[in-house]
Design brief:
CATH class of the largest domain: Mainly Beta
Number of helices: 11
Shape: elongated
Strand content: 15-25%
Order of helices and strands: EHEEEEHEEEEEEEHHHHHHHHH
Amino acid sequence: MFLARFHTAEVSPELRFAAWHEMTSKALIGTVVSTDDVDDFTAAVGVLDLGAVQISVVAYPALRAARTIRLIRRSDPGRLYVTIPLRGRLGVSHLGREADVGTGHFVVIDTSRPGVVVNRRPVEHLIVEVPRSELPRSWAMGSVMARPLPVGQGTGALMVNTARQMMRSAEAYGPADGRRLATVVIDLVVVALAGHAGEDGAVRDAGQRLLQPRILDFIEKRLPDLTLSPSVVAAAHNISVRYLQLLFREQGMTVTGWIRERRLERCRRDLRDPELAGRPVHAIGARWGFPDPTAFSRAFKQAFGVSPGDYRRGHL
């Protein structure tokens, strides 16, 4: 997982358009681009690569970008672009359709098929890229491709808001977060598209898959709470404890074991933090749900093979 940002102000004026085109062709997809603003080209792009999924925010002046058969033959990533204007409008010519897409709507583009995107005024838009293979093969995608689809207040809005929040908080994610976040984004895209494609079964399946990331987030935010337990987690999500345990069992873990693992990981992080060097070891354990120093020391050593004190001395 990595985050990359680029603004044309970083290079001299005569190189800005060429640098931006090169950056976007590598980070996004290859297109033939033309603009009347070559001499005064101001644009920016931010890309969050989660592995299977990529989220981007791009802003640029009026231009025309064409995805040609020649470029597709040269490089075909087999992905869908879910594009949401945040400012301005996009004119999309794709799959024999013409779509005028503004804020409050999104449009789906197949990178394996030719198309043209035009904006006559400056625009900023969010792009969520997902592998075409992640969508059910049985779907009749023709009903959703290259059409302005309303974001609305439901799953479409959730998809957009989640993707924007991931971009804003990208620096806070660790290397291991990419895969989990990618799964969340794919499920949100599936749910958002399923309603327009008339696939109610996919909505239910994706909704079930989205439950576990919400549960994990709930646990993560409440690790210091000594009352955190399977029953508390289940009640917060309106499910039974038995069903909660089943969700975790499918991933090869238990609810209690996951809570314990995450608490110990937070303790380990604090023990190697120089700014917390003056805080007693037992206080760090108590902060993350281990009020008994002896039990904390035993659990930490069992998990990491060394006592909390020895771990701190070896990492500060």
